[in-house]
Amino acid sequence: MTPSPATPTAGVPYFDISDPAFSVRSEEVRRAREEGWYARTNYGLAVLRYDEVGRLLKHPKLAQGSARWPAHHGITGGPFAAWWANWVLNKEGDDHHRLRRLLNPAFSRRMIAPLVPRFQALAGELVDGFREPDRCEFVAEFAEPYAARVIAIMLGLPEEHWREIARDSATIGLAMGVTIRADLPRIEAALDRLYGYVDEAVRDRRREPRDDFVTRLAQAQSEDDRLSPEELRDSLVLLVFGGFDTTRNQLGLGMRTFLDHPGQWRLLAERPDLGGAAVEEVMRVAPTTTWVTREAREDFTFEGLDIAAGTTVHLFTESAGTDPRAVPDGSFDITAERPPHFGFGGGAHHCLGHFVARGDMSVALPLLARRMRDPRPGGQARWLPFSGNTGPVELPVSFTPDQGVSA
Amino acid sequence: MRVVVDLATCQDHGQCAIAAPEAFRINDAGALEYDGSPGEEHREHVEEAADVCPVQAITIED
After folding, report:
1. Which cofactor(s) are needed, names only (chain B) (predicted)?
2. Which of A50, A59, A92, A104 best tests the B interface by mutation, with the highest count of B CBs <10 A?
3. Cα(A234)–Cα(A87) distance, integer angstroms
4. How much is the pLDDT for A174?
5. Residue B31 is part of which domain span?
6. The pLDDT value given to residue A221
């Protein structure tokens, strides 16, 4: 993120978004959204309303905003910088499209659908394994192992390695913070271990191809083009890292949202077919990715505002999703028709793994609703800041166990 | 080959234009334009476009 010369402009709200106390769901953001479509921040602009977020997300003058993040912190060489530069997310134009063309088919709905029953069985196993019959620490006992084991299932890694996958992904997550430089040795050690896992999986599939995700990526081909060995391992590690944190956080946010809406939770238990709609509604009001970052490629004017080349633009997904101009009724309702949310970003950089995330969460939530009746807070929760990528770190929940009596 | 995009569902993400630039394109205004009857030689790409569309708005009718 480039600190842009944000000259205070009279009448335009200002947020310090790097303050841990700043919250995208605060009253000040709600108020600013009523005053206008954008605010200024210490790192460029914040866009607050549904219509403008939707249009800027796919605006041709904006590029994805994270490519130069390591360089801004003095990290220009070494394994981490090389990995980052190879992310499909951090490429633009033809280089991006080529990589995306090779990666996309393995993530299509048709390819992911056969794994969904396995995800559902995993959700059941985890609830069976809760230490107590009527309470759990939802993050440690469900969201974290579920997210990590879904990735192990995708990659065909031994599921008992889930703790290492979780720990190393979390360590790499430190790279998103402002202490990236100090944390670099730990980050690179975690990266090295994840490379070890994916290299082994690739070696195995090259020796003995299977009908699975890693084999499909290893064999991915577009005309005469293929992923290079580096692109393949970099993309697989990106999948581990990009899929783990987000899914864990989004499940925690889902659970927390439903604690406030017990009627909706009961409905979901009775109507598992609403699982997909429940995921969309949760991501509309409580997305883990609270903003999507873009950067202006060149000077341009949008809705009368001059935006200079290099300006960082934060598209506030939650503020857009709860914008009364787009969703006037203000309720949380898994049966309502809603406009699409922006929790998976959009445009050329739309989340690559969204069919996986949608598939795994849409079976997990109804199963939890059936097994954890009448859930309520079971103690003090701990949270990441409500900015950047958010979610609960600890979420104790008490509930009435399902008696196994089907209605 | 006949291709139909449900424009009420389409969100102009442009993944189809990445998969099958012969049939789909995002114009300078950021909106989808497409060829409803692309040549048979593009079938593989167009099927891939339908497959990867995030909102599954593309139907190949024959």
Report:
1. [3Fe-4S] cluster
2. A104
3. 7
4. 87
5. 3-60
6. 83
